[in-house]
Amino acid sequence: MLQLTRDASAYQHRDSLTKAYPDAVSHEPFIASTPARSLKYGPHDSIFLEGDQAGHIYEMVEGAVMLYKLLPDGRRQVVELLVPGDLFGLTCDEFQDCSAEALTVVRVRIHTREAVERSAELQQRLFCHARAQMQALRDHAVLLGRKSAMERVASFIERLALSSDDDAIRLPMTRQEIADYLGLTIETVSRSFSELRRRGLVACERQDVIRVPDLERISELTGAH
Amino acid sequence: MLQLTRDASAYQHRDSLTKAYPDAVSHEPFIASTPARSLKYGPHDSIFLEGDQAGHIYEMVEGAVMLYKLLPDGRRQVVELLVPGDLFGLTCDEFQDCSAEALTVVRVRIHTREAVERSAELQQRLFCHARAQMQALRDHAVLLGRKSAMERVASFIERLALSSDDDAIRLPMTRQEIADYLGLTIETVSRSFSELRRRGLVACERQDVIRVPDLERISELTGAH
DNA sequence: CGATTATTTGAAATCGCTCAAGTTGGGTGG
DNA sequence: CCACCCAACTTGAGCGATTTCAAATAATCG
User: Fold this and answer.
1) Which residues in chain B come in under a pLDDT of 70?
2) How far apart, in whole angstroms, are the C-alpha atoms of residue B87 and residue A124?
3) How far away is chain A from the Cα of B200, in angstroms, using its nearest Cα?
4) Which pLDDT does position B115 carry in this prediction?
């Protein structure tokens, strides 16, 4: 039976957004019992689009995926970043309410609705997962509604750094994708990174690999401390 | 068993944010089977605070509630508006991740976690409800991250108007609360309303009651059409 | 190595914010 | 019932953070 226990563990293993290099971050299957189909995507591959028939449940095994929505004039807002262990694609509706695109090489396992309906344990984890994602969305609403550009970028780096076990943090997204996630323009994101570099708070090895010598000083800039 | 069916009905009855006057919008119990405790709050009463022990599940029966988060320096972001039929207060964690405050006179029914764990039908509705709230949060992320001030206000009015059966729409929130919901300042919200009034797109009877003669023209301003 | 794309930087414009008065309106008590 | 009061709202002026527009530079991939 679905237990509404105080268990955040289902959302703890947020790792591979951050791995310096996306070498096989394997992840034990979320849904062990099912003969699930496995799929692989390359960077920038579309997984599904807003409005698509919502068929099954995707379980992240490796890589990073973004969920985004578009306005008719082309403005884009990235609403979620997904890493191994995360689930997505499940709606109560008939259709997807946002689009999903692979940021890196991505492996997902695909489960049918029926498989989910059969497994009580799965339902519980699914539910807790939804709650955790909701918490993340609320935090993101605070970021989008109330934080300055620098605070947004610092929050983003802090999140990556916290979930990284490596010293070098790989940015899984282009500047444009980061901008669309943080509700900024690409130029503002770039300027914020430059400013942090100038201040010695981040070091860039390559465009997409950064080092954070002192995470504490980044955290002070997030607005949440 | 928890059915992951394509059923958005659990989230359809968004009504009383909009009733011109909050006269007893009664709502059939979401959870019929439980001997649930009922509670009443007045406008601006706090229901719980971020960090409070997360005990039970609240079911909205009457009125409107806002969920919000604060940054340490006092900046506030309203992350959700709740109306009869909505559920809140349920976390996977031990603690509330945001605060809840009554906007109007509010009646809620309170259920224990145990009661929820006993009812399969309830779990399903709870789950679908969480999905629907998530969709709302994603839409709100688009608003906060990508829409102009006028587009935000128009989106807000459109939402109220769509869920209103009356011609007169009662704003259940002060300008400050609207501002904190839309990620703006109180002055910007006020100026946007004035601009809409000047253009004849809304008429104000009182500060907190407006009329929308032509909803179509408001919709054109939301950025989503 | 060259072409192409992504990123950075600069300068100017703009939208929304801040600060500072006014104004309105609803409620209260005389 | 009216005058007053207080809080909520509106309006104005100036400022500033972020965007926009335009190049320049750097990185990536054949």
Assistant:
1) 1-35
2) 18
3) 25
4) 84
- Nearest CA to A102 out of A65, A138, A52 is that of A65
pLDDT of residue A191: 98
pTM for the predicted model, two decimal places: 0.88
In tens, the pLDDT along B150-204 reads: 999 999 999 999 998 888 999 999 999 999 999 999 999 999 999 999 999 999 9
Q: Could A145 and B182 be called an inter-chain contact, meaning their C-beta atoms sit closer than 8 Å?
A: yes
How many Å apart are A62 CA and D30 C1'?
A: 28
* φ, ψ at B117 (rounded to 5°): -65, -20
Q: Residue A152 — φ and ψ, nearest 5°?
A: -65, -45
Mutate to test the interface with B, among A1, A3, A4, A184 (most CBs of B within 10 A): A4
Report angle CA B64, B68, B69 to the nearest 5 degrees: 170
Dist. CA B50–CA A225, nearest whole Å: 16
Distance from residue B186's CA to nucleotide D10's C1', rounded to whole Å: 10
Contact residues on chain B for A93, CB-CB shorter than 8 A:
6, 8, 131, 135
CA A87 to C1' D25, in angstroms, rounded, equals 40
Q: Which residue reads 């968004």 in tokens?
A: B14
Whole-angstrom distance, CA of residue B122 vs CA of residue B1: 10
Q: pLDDT (tens digit, 9 = 90+) per residue, A17-28?
A: 655 444 433 444
